[in-house]
Write a structure and sequence with these properties.
By secondary structure, the chain is of the alpha/beta class. The protein has 21 helices and 20 strands. The chain folds into 3 domains: 240 residues, P-loop containing nucleotide triphosphate hydrolases (Rossmann fold), CATH 3.40.50.300; 174 residues, no CATH class; 170 residues, no CATH class. The chain is 47% helix and 21% strand. It is rod-shaped and about 135 Å long.
């Protein structure tokens, strides 16, 4: 003879609680044929619900063998058990176990989601089933908007979604009024006539009387098994819907839709979760933009002074008070100027002097230098001209002024050709330098007067020793070689190292490294805030798993594999992180723009934006994994029984 649809042989089930072992089922033997309408009756604690869970592959027996269509269920892994529940079983629970966030159609089509059927096809079938059960005007209603009887009809429609060869009904009328209970039993009888195998779990003898076979269980033992005489009645062929092929994109799409529905149902908590990610991403973008902006401004300011310059100062390296040492003379600059790869070498003798004109006076820096100063400093007049070698030879009292001096001393007139008293010596203004702005150290570079070196040393400063020599290098590829040549030349001329040489390229490099360190520090601080946001995501997702344990059990009962559950919660975490990432990018760029408008230097770059968004994605991926893994490993029976 062919094997029965279901065969239980020596099934036992025990539960362990500490050192206490409680045995619920004791060697149950049971065969159920396809198409039977079976009622399993027993009082509370008799083991009937445990037996139903084993029959529905929601739980495993402690010992014994369960064969389904001749195949041992014990050999099936969790995903194969999920596929069996999806394709062969339909569950009708006493408390309905509907998803609160989904409408009637969404609840009914749930098993078809996990069988891979296309959305339009399964939605149409869900509507047909609900219409057949008299709920055509409740399709878009959520469980909270339906009566108990209507919710149980939705539960029955869900059980039939994938065909429902075997309907497992656990106290289907227990929470209903008498009329709704009669309606539900009439539906189950109709399904039995269509060829569905109905296994009804109840403690009510009147409900059990609708079945063709009555099995009584007591203290974990089957104490009676009676069959009614079956009257021949026409059998309406049951509808077996086609199986979906399923694909990864479909699964991801469904998981994303479910994630959005779940996030919408807890908007306030979702916003709080988003806040950590938003702050983290915005911090990364704005802090890096500010750090890189500050770095770029400092480098630009130093570079504007000349990245090809060597500055020679009097006094040995690391010597205190070396500014007052008199060791450099103009002839040193003349000798350096003759070296190869030197574009120009100019002495500079500077100090604060009093300027007077038309009853107004002010303290300004005066710099006595050579006529090749514009070439060495790459700084040229925008009005008039610079003084010439002839002016130096003649000790001419001519001056070239900066933009600040021009504005302050000649506010209402063109300064060219005008006269200016410098330390009571009358100078004629022959040129105005282009505007340069503040130096990296905050000094106003335009508050200066430039005069011939001979004139300044003789008539203003009364000395020939120079404050520094500026050397402009022609080819910066040989910067270090020229640096060494200048060092050797001065050492030969002076007989000792009573000078110090600064390489502007080295200063820029050192400053850049310092600013990079500060930028990295700012970035690390911002990333830490992003990690804190990620921990918030993990905590909220763990809370979500705890709150939705029953929902996870319902999904597992309707055919969800572990991958489906893990995928759903992972996508929820990723969705939160990605939405937070988008908002964080927008807020970060907006904050950066506001800060920039207030005068703080900022530098927009693609890398920090991509980095921040990628960090948000990885945050969701990493911190969403543990809650998703926990959800996927829940036991279906324990999940369904949670409050």
């Amino acid at each position: 003879m062919d094997s029965p649809l279901i065969r239980l042989k020596g099934i036992t089930k025990s539960y362990q609680s500490g050192e206490l072992t409680t045995q619920v089922l004791h060697g149950v033997d049971l065969d159920i044929e396809a198409g039977e309408f079976v009622a399993i009756v027993g009082s509370s604690g008799s083991g009937k619900s445990t037996l139903m869970n084993i029959l529905g592959c929601l739980d495993k027996p402690t010992t014994g063998d369960y064969e389904f269509r001749g195949q041992s269920v014990a050999k099936l892994n969790p995903d194969q058990l999920a596929a069996l529940r999806r394709d062969a079983f339909g569950f009708v629970f006493q408390n309905y176990n509907l998803l609160a966030a989904a409408d009637a159609v969404g609840n009914v089509e749930l098993p078809a989601v996990y069988s891979g059927r296309a959305a339009p096809e399964r939605r149409e079938r869900a509507k047909q089933l609900l219409t057949q059960l008299g709920l055509e005007d409740r399709l878009d209603h959520k469980p909270g908007q339906l009566s108990g009887g209507q919710q149980q009809r939705v539960s029955i429609a869900r059980a039939l979604m994938n065909g429902g060869d075997i309907i497992l009904a656990d106290e289907p009328t227990g929470a209903l009024d008498s009329q709704s209970g009669k309606d539900v039993m009439a539906l189950l009888e109709g399904l039995s006539r269509q060829g569905h195998t109905i296994i009804l779990i109840t403690h009510d003898a009147k409900v059990a009387a609708h079945a063709d076979r009555l099995i009584e269980i007591k203290d974990g033992h089957i104490v009676s098994d009676q069959r009614k005489p079956v009257e021949s009645a026409p059998v309406t062929p049951k509808q077996t819907p086609p199986r979906g092929k399923g694909n990864v994109l479909n699964d991801l799409g469904e998981a994303f839709t479910t994630a959005l529905r779940s996030l919408r149902s807890n908007v306030f908590r979702t916003m709080l979760t988003l806040l950590g990610i938003v702050i983290g991403v915005a911090s990364v973008i704005s802090m890096l933009a500010i750090g890189q902006g500050a770095q770029q401004e400092v480098v630009d300011r130093i570079s504007s002074m000349g990245s090809n310059l060597l500055s020679v100062f009097p006094g040995a390296p690391n010597q205190r008070g070396r500014w007052s040492v008199a060791s450099l003379v103009p002839e040193d600059a003349d000798a350096i100027d003759l070296l190869p790869n030197v574009l120009a070498a100019v002495p500079e003798l500077s100090g604060n002097q009093t300027l007077r004109r038309a009853g107004f006076d002010q303290q300004t820096q005066v710099n006595a230098t050579y006529s090749t100063y514009p070439l060495a400093r790459n700084w040229h007049p925008v009005q008039g001209s610079f003084f010439t070698p002839e002016d130096e030879e003649l000790t001419a009292t001519v001056a070239v002024i900066g933009q600040t001096v021009a504005r302050q001393m000649f506010p209402d007139t063109d300064p060219l050709g005008e006269f200016l008293l410098i330390n009571n010596v009358l100078f004629r203004v022959i040129g105005v330098m282009q505007e340069r702005g503040a130096s990296p150290w905050g000094q106003d570079q335009d508050d200066v007067v430039l005069v011939p070196f001979s004139t300044g040393s003789l008539r203003l400063f009364g000395q020939r020793f120079v404050r520094n020599v500026t050397v402009a290098i022609d080819d910066t590829n040989f910067m270090h070689e020229t640096h060494q040549q200048v060092h050797n030349l001065l050492l030969e001329r002076h007989g000792q190292e009573d000078f110090t040489i600064r390489n502007m390229a080295s200063i820029i490099e050192t400053q850049t490294e310092t600013e990079n360190t500060m930028t990295i520090l700012l970035g690390v601080i911002a990333v830490i805030s992003l990690v804190v946001g990620g921990i918030g995501v993990m905590n909220i997702m763990l809370v979500s798993v705890t709150e939705r344990t029953r929902e996870i059990g319902v999904r597992m009962a309707t055919g969800a594999r572990r991958l489906h559950i893990m995928q759903q919660f992972m996508i929820e975490a990723l969705t939160v992180s990605l939405i937070g990432g988008v908002l964080g990018v927008a807020i970060g760029l907006g904050t950066t723009a506001v800060i920039g408008s207030l005068g703080t230097p900022v530098l927009y770059a693609t890398t920090p934006v991509v980095l921040a968004f990628a960090c948000a994605f990885l945050t969701g991926l990493i911190f969403g994994f543990l809650p998703a893994r926990k959800a996927s490993r829940l036991d279906p029976v324990q999940a369904l029984s949670s409050e």
